[in-house]
Amino acid sequence: MTHTRYHDVVLLLLRLMFGLSMAYAHGWPKLQRLTGGEEVKFLDFLGLGPEISLGLAVFAELFCALLLAVGLFTRLATLPLIITMFVAVFVAHWGDPYSDMEGGLLFLVPYVCILLAGPGWYSIDAQIRKSA
After folding, report:
1. How far is CA 17 from CA 24, 70, 101, 102, 119, in A?
2. d(CA 50, CA 86)
């Protein structure tokens, strides 16, 4: 199968949709929660405390998601997103109805695909490689 610019457009659309959606719908509200001054109640998966756990989720869901959307450090940015969605699905919502796990899975799978495929031509990563 030959690589075409259509593949690059598909990767761009995936990065934009799943990066911006994660940042806007999940990362930004978590940042507001983290900085809101109220007591933080959040899954403490690693035993580091709910504040640090929420901070790690904000790092992944806001900052890494924005890096993913623009295609900068794309493969590295997908790793925290994959870990966060894996924990959401297989720890936080394990045993819950599928409908509660579905959202995490719908983000997890495209992040794994982007990790494997790379950012595509329409990314800052590709432009950096091109100029090097």
Report:
1. 11, 11, 19, 17, 13
2. 18
Query: From CA 124, how far away is CA 115, in angstroms rounded?
Result: 15
CA gap 114, 123 in Å, rounded: 12
Tell me if 27 sits within 8 A of 70, measured CB to CB: no
pTM over 0.85: yes
Per-residue pLDDT reduced to its tens digit, 76-97: 999 999 999 999 999 999 999 9
Start-to-end CA distance of the chain, whole Å, equals: 27
Q: Can you tell me the distance from the alpha carbon of 72 to that of 92, in angstroms, rounded to the nearest whole number?
A: 29
Q: What is the pLDDT of residues 6-60, one digit of tens each?
A: 999 999 999 999 999 999 999 999 999 999 989 888 988 888 999 999 999 999 9
Calculate the CA 38 to chain-centre distance.
25
Go through the chain and tell me how many residues it has: 132
Q: How many CA atoms lie within 13 A of 30 on its CB side?
A: 23
Tokens representing 125 are 């990563």
